Amino acid sequence: MNDVSALPSNHTDCQVVKVPHLVFLVLGMVSLSENLLVVVAVVRNKNLHSPMYMFICSLATFNTISSLSKTWETLMMEFSDVGQLDSRGDSVRRVDDIIDALLCMSFIGCICSFLAIAVDRYVTIFHALRYHNIMTTRRAAAALAGIWALCGVAGAVMVAFCDATVIKIFFIVLFLISLLLILFLYVHMFLLARSHARKIAALPGSAMPHRSLRGALTLTMLFGVFVVCWAPFFLHLLLLMVCVENPYCECYRSLFQLNLVLLMSHAVVDPAIYAFRSAELRNTFRKMLFCSDSPLCYKVKALFH
């Protein structure tokens, strides 16, 4: 990721914005805690072993990898700044390459998982009666296997050929295609929900339904958060290719670390907008945090009674 943030050598009056390591460390730890909680909850609760929660678990896992990688990278940079680590050593460079590969893999994985969740919700609304025939556990598992294989290969290739223009183009095209697909699905779902709300409201004696519209607005909010957190990073990649010498482009590229803060913030927001709105997940979290569903917990409690 450091190569991506490098600025051209020509002169600019804009200073590179430096974000304190503590900010990345705090975001990484918070994101790691939240997403690990989601993964453990989905794995432990058999009621959550459905395609939708499988995709949510995949998203949380990618976010966990991203949080771990960025936290470890931040610690390495901190040790390097205080002279406890030689950043020019071969072993450190190899570790840095692994971290960058994991970060690239997790970023692509988040996009693919987000798209998978959008498709799942689209099928839920438009093919509700056939949902369980279309979105089977086997098909969901096959889709996740393909996503993880693609992301693993893409992460390794992007780090190995990070200076190649075609790699940046692939990253940008993948983002734009995913963005357009998600936009189409969410706009279609929003229009359908609004149409259903109008039909129900027209029935005699019916109250104005807020639930469908609230669900559609939630989808709009999710899409908006996704765009806000991800678009600046991909704009940075685009400017690296098409706007090399322009001083205004250099000023934007000087904000690269702020773009990384946005990316990590999305991993913090993900559990709230995807997982914590689920009653089943909230009940699972409550049982886990208050130790009320494990035989070991019962034994520990018995010792104090």
UniProtKB/TrEMBL annotation:
Domain G-protein coupled receptors family 1 profile: residue ranges: 34-274
Parts forming coiled coils: none
Cell location: Cell membrane
Presence of the UniProt keyword Cytoplasm in the record: no
PROSITE patterns per UniProt: G_PROTEIN_RECEP_F1_2
Topology versus the membrane: Multi-pass membrane protein
PANTHER family in alphabetical order: G-PROTEIN COUPLED RECEPTOR (PTHR22750)
Protein name stated in the entry: Melanocyte-stimulating hormone receptor
Native organism: Oncorhynchus mykiss (Rainbow trout)
Gene: MC2R
